[in-house]
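Sanity check. The docking grid for glutamine depends on where the pocket ends up, so I'm generating a full predicted complex first rather than guessing from homology. Inputs follow.
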Amino acid sequence: MGAIGQKGILLQSKLPNIGTTIFTVMSKMAQDYKAINLSQGFPDFDCPDRLKELVTKHLNDGKNQYPPMAGIPALRQQIAEKVKAYYHYDADPETEVTVTSGATEALFDAIQAVVSRDDEVIVFDPAYDSYEPAIQLAGGRTIHIPLSLPDYSIDWDRVKQSITARTRLIIINTPHNPCGSILTKADLDNLAAVIRDQDILVLSDEVYEHMVYDGLKHESVLAHEELKTKSFAVFSFGKTYHATGWKLAYCVANKELSTEFKKIHQFVTFTTSSFVQYAIADFMAECPQHSLELPAFYQQKRDTFCRLIADSRFRFSPSKGTYFQLVDYSEISQQSDVDFANYLTREKGVAAIPLTPFYQQAPATNILRFCFCKDDSTLERAAEILCKL
Ligand code: PMP
Ligand code: GLN
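Predicted complex below; grid placement will be based on this.
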């Protein structure tokens, strides 16, 4: 299984069942067919002008050599101040904060740091696609627990029953990609109860922390009395500053966990683009209102998209968080979600993400994910097509 023959050399694939990620596949299809791309999650508007000015300034100021391994001190200080302000977490910027090349790297580092051969890691399906390959490369086993329909909530009794002597890590994601659901304080209390007195850690993917709507609140593990000492919390500047291409993110965890995390980080990327770190540190100090304004900014986009497709034959409940909207297309087609997403992209000119690639065992539903972090004009053009289906 997984053998690749090449000029007589036999390569054993370490990820025999992994292909190209669905995000890359659908964005390429959107490009090939000139479809409106509501698939891969990235804005089609630019990051703040002032932030671009700061990047240019630091680039021209010669901030072009290796920054410190864990990130420049000014950025780590800003991150510490931010998690204090938002989550009342007292992070030591020296020992508890690591800047990484995207949240993807941070998730990978955390998993490699604590998962050993045959350790079990619990993920909730549909699960973001980078978790399982990282677990597999660490030699661990992924235990998939499906989120409960219709609201994609976690069945904590089922989690409790799934714990074994080998359970090492539980990965949560709130706000949730692709579902747009969020975890409540009660969920975090349940998680804390499940792992109490056990050697189980938490990896909390919180990259959409500032995209929570309708007055709801993002519940970070950093704000939880019990979980904050047992968790890696991962955040992404790519989402917050509309700059997914810069691949800048960070992990906050207590000193013991961060020490192990940095042992991996230093040999995966060692450090991250220097001038962008300086620019974001300055921007965080100068424009703290940017993050505060994000929920309203994205809620308006969600509401616009939902209003525009309200008269379509798609059925949906507005997302509570993230910049994604799930829709049920059963009234339009009974095709599989992969086939329907391909059809929509190729024949109708709107690209979306199917849900089954995020499941070990997908339920029999007809659901697609649309990304609404787009200019209103893009959403209007897409909705015009979607309403005709
Ligand atoms: N986790 C989730 C849930 C995501 O949606 C994404 C990217 N969209 C990432 C992690 C990776 O973030 P980054 O681009 O910073 O690597
Ligand atoms: N996380 C983004 C999404 O959900 C995609 C990131 C990627 O392409 N790796 O669309």
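Relevant for the grid: Residues 289-308 form the longest helix (20 residues).
Also worth noting: The chain has a mean pLDDT of 97.
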